[in-house]
Write a structure and sequence with these properties.
This protein has about 800 residues and is of the alpha+beta class. It is built from 14 helices and 41 strands. It has a ten-stranded antiparallel beta sheet with strand order 15-20-21-22-23-32-29-28-25-26. Strands 6-7-9-8-14 form a five-stranded mixed beta sheet. The protein has a five-stranded antiparallel beta sheet with strand order 19-24-31-30-27, with no helix packed on it. Helix 6 links the parallel strand 6 and strand 7. The longest helix is centred in the middle third of the chain and has 26 residues.
């Protein structure tokens, strides 16, 4: 992507690091003193940062990928030099363009430790992936591991400044020990600077496991902490990366260039030395030599050789794989019993906001995820009795692969034409996944709508759940909701009403000083076309039709009789332009000092800073969150769960509303869904893929007290397409799953699938509780054994079987994968 420089000069960062108090989030730690006069080893990991949908058509990009791999394979085979794949997609693409023989050649270089690889699929927006899809993003590591005998221990999450805490769960459950990070701090300038000065740390996952993370503080994209921090070695030689064509650069350089490269290496050592006890090891990683370019060069390898020939022994360079650095760091930590900072918590989200730039496609993507899991479970049930259709197996694999294509991190392009092309690739991916899911998933027939005769007219102030609701026909939202105890849930005043549609225009695109720029002063006029309210035995139904800022909106409300549920659906047409703007659905509440929770991939998180009882580490996004299934606000006595099957972005607190005409000072609490936005000027990402119609569904669930962690999952299972296969207390989403008689109280069943080896059946359980959970299931006929696996289906140990049932366990807030064996 684009290049930038941060505010951290080397000297400023070094001073900050040496004067900081070494206190981690989970408590004070005492670091063993870093050795003085260390012999430093700088691992230079040559690679190319892959922007799969950003700089050309899929065909153009894949041809460049294959040609670049050809070049570095030749370098590895003829000269013993090294190169790295920043995701397993490289192997997939190379096989597509060079056949099985080409893949075997690549595997040979990996086996010889000449080509390194990260075990994740590509550079993805992790925050938009469901827990199961995030795990699938790592499945490509296992075929490489098995074919080459090189353990997949290393993952990379690059460029996007955000990374939610649940990713640590995913990575550790997949068996990864190491995580490399480097970012471009676009959209994070206002808060990323608050990161603590720990370039190397243990990241303890919610499940209690940990991964070793190397992530320097951000100085600039092409220097320390950036995703192309090693590219400075190219830049001093006058190399400018081209994202649209292959480049061949001669390896020999002038004495001046060599001297500048040596200087950058020495500055790098000085920087890490200045971290003091916060960086006690002697190994340093520099990656991103290729930046966004398609550069074929042996210049870096020749520089490494020449530097070492001239070295006085205090600094040595290694032409390295990613994993070489991490294994050296791990070895030194163990041998010297070094204490490394340990962090627990979330780095939040950032570029996940781009899903709201393609809001309609994101809705399709999310629905496809749910349908594919249902279809996969139905397919696995057929496999139980030996009725496996290879064509269906292939279709399902393709559908899940398209989910990963959609989630690639750059939702834009280096020109408006390429941004439109990128949107087209994602539209194709979402359509393919959705088409496969809808054609294969067993979807029950919806209940018929009641006839018109079942309804009678109702006033806009009406009784509900032994309380009272008032719907304001001028604001097309709820202005009062009194519960059965006489307590008002909706704040009065001049803030947004409950469920109100809020559209905000801004003066400019986002600025570096804040996540949201200054709004325009002109309020959006709401023109009501029609409001109608009627009641049936099932509940009260309201339809409001109105116009606002060019949007033609119909909002449908349904207040259920049998449950404390309020369903809200917005249908919008037109209105969207390329001007900077946001669309919000606001739910203000009278809760005092509530706790806000939401589910991210791999974890249920508490919004807010660690110092205030939340899960967010310093440097996390304070404004935006991404909830996969729900958001909730509770104050100990009562609360609200908001189910969001079609949207991702969330805001918590009254300050989320910046539109003129609202006063939010009297609002004690608020959950806001943000389905649409386009505040990033970078990469021309504001076309909404040409969509002119959007539909968003919500369900508001009123709850008493702080419900247990399972509550929101149980509620979500009863709204729209079930997001899980089974949740404790509910029947399976695929009815025939009941034959397994699953007994697991910890949380949802994420998947039931035919194993990648085609010889086993895989079930994956997510324990969302804070306590270890045990479970059991009935073994189907012909499947007498079961084993515990990691999340990538690697066998770990047999499970106990008694009375025809397999017994398993899941760590607190952990994921348990079970394989059934013939």
């Amino acid at each position: 992507m684009c290049q930038t420089s941060g505010p951290f000069s080397f000297l400023r960062t070094a001073l900050f690091c040496t004067t900081c108090v070494a206190t981690c989030v989970t408590g004070t730690f005492v670091c063993d003193a870093a050795e003085s006069n260390r012999q430093w080893i700088v691992y230079i990991a040559q690679d190319k940062h892959l922007d799969y949908n950003w700089c050309g058509s899929t065909t153009e990009i894949e041809l460049r990928m294959a040609a670049l791999t050809d070049y570095y394979l030749e370098q590895a085979e003829q000269h013993g030099r090294r190169w790295n794949l920043d995701g397993t997609i490289w192997a997939e693409v190379y096989r597509r363009h060079r056949g099985d023989a080409g893949l075997q050649r690549l595997h040979g270089a990996i086996r010889d430790r000449r080509i390194g690889y990260a075990g994740n699929y590509a550079v993805l927006l992790w925050g938009i992936l469901s827990t199961e899809t995030a795990i699938r993003a790592c499945y490509g590591a296992v075929p490489i591991e098995r074919a080459t005998g090189t353990d997949a221990r290393t993952s990379l999450v690059m460029e996007n400044p955000g990374l939610t805490w649940g990713a640590a769960n995913i990575l550790t459950e997949c068996g990864f020990d190491f995580l490399g990070r480097g970012i471009y701090w676009l959209r994070a300038e206002s808060y990323n600077r608050n990161r603590e000065p720990y370039p190397l740390f243990w990241w303890t996952a919610p499940n209690g496991k940990r991964v070793l993370v190397r992530w320097d503080l951000y100085d600039g994209t092409q220097t320390w902490g950036g995703y192309a921090e090693a590219f400075r070695l190219a830049k001093v030689a006058g190399i400018s990366p081209s994202a649209q064509r292959l480049q061949t650069i001669e390896g020999d350089t002038t004495p001046e260039v060599h001297a500048q490269r040596r200087a950058y290496i020495h500055q790098t050592v000085e920087r890490y030395e200045a971290y003091g006890d916060a960086y006690p090891i002697s190994s340093i990683l520099l990656l991103g030599t290729g930046h966004d370019g398609w550069i074929r060069t042996d210049s870096f390898s020749k520089f490494i050789e020449r530097f070492n020939n001239e070295s006085d022994g205090t600094i040595r360079l290694v032409d390295a794989r990613y994993q070489d650095f991490f294994e050296a760091a791990e070895r030194e930590i163990q041998e010297k019993e070094l204490t490394i900072p340990s962090l627990e918590g979330s780095f939040g989200i950032c570029w996940e906001e781009w899903a709201a730039h393609l809001a309609g496609l994101t809705q399709d993507f999310r629905e496809a995820e749910r349908l594919l899991r249902l279809a996969e479970a139905d397919h696995a049930l057929k496999a139980v009795s030996g009725k496996v259709d290879p064509r269906t197996t292939e279709l399902l694999q393709h559908g899940f692969q398209q989910l990963l294509v959609f989630a690639e991190h750059d939702m834009g392009g280096i020109s408006r034409r390429l941004a439109a092309m990128s949107a087209g690739v994602r539209a194709s991916a979402a359509v393919q996944a959705l088409d496969i899911g809808r054609s294969l998933a067993p979807i029950p027939t919806p209940a018929p709508s009641p006839p018109a005769s079942a309804f009678s007219p109702e006033d806009l102030t009406f009784s509900w759940q032994n309380g009272e609701v008032t719907f304001d026909e001028k604001r097309c939202a709820v202005v009062s909701l009194v519960d059965r105890d006489g307590r008002e849930l909706v704040p009065s005043g001049k803030g947004p009403a409950f469920g109100e549609f809020v559209h905000t225009r801004y003066r400019t695109r986002a600025r570096s000083q804040a996540v949201f720029p200054e709004p325009l002063d002109s309020p959006g006029q709401l023109t009501v076309r029609d409001v109608a309210c009627r009641r049936s035995a099932d509940g009260v139904e309201i339809r409001a039709a109105f116009d606002r800022n060019g949007f033609r909106v119909i909002s449908d409300w349904f207040f259920h009789t049998a449950h404390p549920w309020i369903d809200v659906t917005y249908r919008m047409e037109d209105g969207w332009t390329d001007d900077p703007q946001t669309v919000q659905s606001c739910f203000p509440l009278t809760l005092d000092n509530p706790t806000y929770r939401y589910d991210a991939p791999g974890a249920v998180l508490v919004a807010g800073p660690k110092a205030d009882g939340g899960d967010d580490l310093p440097g996390a996004n304070p404004e935006l969150f991404a909830g996969l299934t729900f958001a909730s606000a509770t104050d100990g006595e009562r609360g609200v769960i908001l189910l969001t099957p079609d949207t991702l972005l969330l805001q918590f607190g009254a300050d989320a509303v910046r539109a003129p005409g609202y006063q939010t000072s009297d609002i004690p609490a608020q959950i806001t869904s943000l389905p649409m936005m386009n505040l990033t000027g970078n990469d021309r990402q504001f076309g909404q893929a040409g969509r002119r119609q959007w539909t968003y569904r919500y369900r508001v669930v009123l709850v008493d007290g702080n419900r247990d962690a399972l509550g929101p999952f149980q509620e979500a299972q009863r709204f729209a397409t079930p997001p899980f296969l089974q949740v404790p207390g509910h029947s399976p989403a695929v009815p025939d799953l009941s034959t397994l008689e699953i007994d697991f109280a910890g949380g949802p069943l994420l998947t039931f699938k035919l194993a990648e080896d085609r010889n086993r059946l895989i079930l994956r359980f997510w324990n969302v509780s804070s306590r270890p959970a045990r479970g059991s299931l009935k073994l189907p006929k012909g499947w007498p054994r079961a084993e515990r696996c990691d999340a990538l289906e690697r066998p770990q140990e047999p499970l106990t079987v008694a009375d025809g049932r397999a017994n398993f366990a899941a760590d607190a807030r952990g994921i348990s994968t079970v394989a059934l064996c013939r």
